[in-house]
Amino acid sequence: MSSAARSSIILLLAALVTIALGGYVDAAVIAVVLTLNAIIGFTQERKAEVSVRALMRLASPRVRVIREGKEWEIESRRLVVGDVVLLESGVRVPADLRLTSTTALAVDESLFTGESVPVTKQTRPLDEALALVDRTNMAYTGTVVTSGRGRGYVVATGPRTELGAIAGKMRVEDKTATPLQQRMSRFARVISLAVAASAVVGFGLGSALGHPPMEMIMLAVALSVAAIPEGLPVVLTVTLAVGVGRMARRRAIIRRLPAVETLGSTTFIGSDKTGTLTENRMTVEEVWAGGQLFPVRGDPDRLEPVGDAAALSAEHCPLYLTLLAGVLTNEAEIYVTEHGIETRGDPTEAALLVAAARMGIEHEEARDIYAMFAEIPFEPERQYSASVRVRGDRYLVFVKGAPERVLGMCTSLMADEGARELSPGQVLDAARQMASRGLRVLAMAYADLPHPPHGPEEVREPEGQTFLGLVGMIDPPRAGVHDAIAGCQRAGIRVVMITGDHAVTAQAIGRQLGIAAPGAPVLTGAELATMDDDALRRRVKQVSLFARVAPEQKLRVVQVLRSHGEVVAVTGDGVNDAPALKAADIGIAMGKSGTDVAREAADMILADDNFVSIHAAVEEGRITFDNLRKATFFLVSTGAATVVTILAAMVLSWPIPFVPAQLLWLNLVTNGLQDVALAFEPGERGVLERPPRRRAEGIVSSLLWERTLVAGLVMAIGTLALFRWELDESGSLTRAQTVALTTMVVFQMFHVGNSRSEFLSVFAKSPFSNFFLFITTAAAFLVHLSALHLAPAQFVLRVEPLVHPGAWLRILAVAASILVAMEIHKLVRRGSLRPGEI
Ligand code: ATP
């Protein structure tokens, strides 16, 4: 049962008991409050939900289409029948498509068939009568491209698709309670127990002291009403929604609400390199070919060639062929516009086109001369791409990929004088040297085929290749990432790089970014594959760089870390990263470069693909949790104060200082205005200077329980003292209750200031830094003041105006004592804490 439902039931019982005892006004007030609470709670939660949904829509799926002969990226929901859609691995098919071209296109159709083996697609016409699963020239909405490329035109969208027809039956909702909800519900259970206990204790004590049973029942009702933090569910939703909004402003879009607070306890971040830590803005710097290193000349921002292809081919054949191979095994496009060079597709491949153009090789011309025959597009797990080309009667296969991978396919090396014997050591040395300068290194090779291949399958693992050369490109670290990593480290979070790139490149970039010291060890995918879980568990503690890691190995790293008790955030962008993203506490996908599959598996999406946004999200996560804790502390400690006041009055055989309606007034109206405002507290200085919160730590820590007790006692004593004073002075219970109520209201006004920081003095924070809180505090006071003077409110709340300045002065003076008490508690307990442990 939700805490809101639980508190409503208790209140309902309270109302019934009150009616039974003839307290019609109080019962009516409780009923009105119940209704209001439900309405406000519902609208607040709806509002929060709507805004969170709107933010999530920022990460709505996008699709690449061809319109007016040019490639565009549009939102999937804007597709119309007839649009030509481009498919690649990781895309969730956005509409029903009739395929017009496919390159090793395989689609997972388990959504329809339950069969998880991907179906290979083709473009030939088929019999109309075929069943859906056999229509291999179609791609259906909701299915996922697992590998290859394709294009097709839209034949149906939205509800008219095959998926649309069955969507109603398939809606699955994730109903599992999130950690925060679980924690909150545990907390609500504790509170309910406290409510029950205080009612029973009150009743028992009172009866033992000889109070009439009727009075005791009234008292039990009052205690229940006082102890329930009615505002808590709303505060929870609003605080999380505010957190989501703040994160979105910092380019981190939350897909699952609890991620907001899990982020705050993250202890480990495993980040991809390309695009997240670096800019994914590749520029080819140098080419190693024929045993020599060549710088790539010319301005990378302009395509003016510094030479021509014929001269280059004659002078440095291996260099020419290396660049040519880069152009022919390439799916990217570059255009020259008035703003400079515009690229489409993989930046690595676009960089190869630009480099070739700078050296005089025009890519369209090259693609015309060497006509395309078959293609094996790049997939990260394969680490290479290949293309079969025809020129005259020659069939050539060109390969580009990770140097070790390509080298394994080669038997000779291209030199100026022609192919000669290959010395793999020499090539690997050259690759290592380039990588140690932080360059991303790709290798190129080619072979003449003795006869035309029957299809791409035949050249899947090309052999007998001639090694052509190595291309080294820089991909500068993103601005701000170095500082963000240092910031995470100061915040007690370990940052590691998990990359598909070469170990030496990883080392160089890791060093530049401050992830690892010079010469720090790197764990490669190959080593990782030989380790058992125990060995890996020991190793992950020491290593911050993981290179040539396959997606399923990333999953293993995540699992091993989680078994260490780490709270793991991990980034991923490929189709096969989805399991690792799901397994992590926080799966992070890329908004720009990631695949749909990765985005769907993620808890959070980085709108700008930038690591800096993860750092920002962690900060916001911590702030959100802090604010939740502050609001809860505020609510619970003021609740405790009223309970103690009532119990003490009874023990002292005094009249009860509050009627139930007044307690609701305190809990919901005056308190309710301020606790929601605590959701808007700006972060405290140093949120990122303390270690991550321990996972098991509750919303209210043991120290805050202790502080709750102190606050409860101080406020209760102050209220009781003024209540007694007024009772003795005036002899009027109504006047004394008015004073008690007003004292509590003013106590709350001061105490909300105390609650703004767990460990800083109230005076260290400007009252205007949370203007909303300032306004609501003032409003709470004005509303209360009006209630004292307006007849209907006077009737319902049983209050009267406080006209005597002396009464006000006494109230102010006594209420200020909560500031002193909390300051002392903060001071005394500060020394005994680990930094950040509050
Ligand atoms: P990260 O995993 O950090 O994003 P990455 O981009 O280097 O790094 P992958 O995309 O998995 O990782 O690529 C793995 C390797 O495959 C690269 O290091 C490179 O050697 C090779 N590679 C990358 N892009 C291409 C491409 N378009 N064509 C051929 N080979 C490529």
Give a brief outline of the structure.
By secondary structure, this protein is of the alpha+beta class. Helices cover 49% and strands 18% of the residues.
- Helix percent reads 40-55%
> DSSP strand (E) fraction?
15-25%
What is the overall shape? Answer: elongated
The set of bound ligands, ions and cofactors reads: adenosine-5'-triphosphate
Tell me the number of helical segments per DSSP (H or I, 4 or more residues long): 28
- The count of DSSP E runs of length 2 or more, i.e. the number of strands, is 26
Low-confidence stretches: 169-177, 834-838
> How would you name the oligomeric state of the polypeptide chains in this document?
single chain
For the record, give the distance between the C-alpha atoms at the N and C termini, rounded to a whole number.
Answer: 29 Å
SSE-based structural type: alpha+beta
Largest sheet: 9 strands, mixed
Indicate the radius of gyration in whole angstroms.
Answer: 34 Å
